[in-house]
Amino acid sequence: MNNNTISEVLSYAEKLGCCCLLNEPLKKHTTFKIGGPCSAMVLANSEQSIASMLRFCTENDIKTLVIGNGSNLLVSDNGFDGVVIVVGKDFQGIKLLDDTTIEVLAGTTLSQLCMFALQNELTGLEFAYGIPGTVGGAVFMNAGAYDGDISTVIDSANAVDFNGKVLNFTVKQMVLSYRKSVFHDIDCVITKAVFKLKKGDKTAIKEKMDDLMLRRKTKQPLEFPSAGSTFKRPLGSFAGKLIDDCGLRGYSVGGAQVSEKHCGFVINKDNASFDDVLTLIKNVQNIVCEKTGCCLECEVRIID
Q1: Which of 23, 139, 188, 256 is the right S-S partner for 277, CB 3.0 to 4.6 Å?
Q2: Does the active-site annotation cover 179?
Q3: What is the mean pLDDT of the chain?
Q4: Is 46 a catalytic residue?
């Protein structure tokens, strides 16, 4: 982006009441703590601001990247030559529509949503407690853990396309499957979601949430930056077990490492670069495929 275009983006973002950051390092906005600067970063504060910014970028042929908490993202050290729209802390909110139905803005974190459900004695979201992402990102990838996923609790969602049109999706229209949704195949941004839960016992809900959080802390390398589970679960097996069976526990490339605690995680152990992580992922895929015949599919979204 040239300076004139950047100035136009800054001016337009200010008109929308959004904070705009220039040359902002993306490593500050991803859980991998990797990524170079973007030309401009706009912190979305409403559905309308997202719609307007997307339409502005489309009309002016500006490259656009939309992120939430950056928890499933690996960004190049070269950064992103375009506008990054962050659907995060400036766009959060939760409210009850009735006794068992919750409406949530996309920038709200899953942990915030789970705590709200707990406070209102609603069960069904316990599996999501501790998943380090936003509601928008969770719907996008049908996030799940411990035998639960978003498809079991979501009722509907709003999204805006790159022409600024607001769309509504039913569960059926979202085509939710293992770590995938229709949003992978269409150009639009999730802005809010509606969840249908069930009344439950508050003590039992909290006990389950605490148990799952303890399991995460015990079994996952939460002490290091990562993008969560690096590979999708292969049919009939587990990525971590296959990687471990191939002798790759602790395998490193530069500052990137296959976690010694859980082989399904690639971690940023020591100031890893984008190339370190990408090379490690590809090497693991090649070795596992050669030794087991199983081709692991990367779950992390890669922006190069």
Answers
A1: 256
A2: yes
A3: 97
A4: no
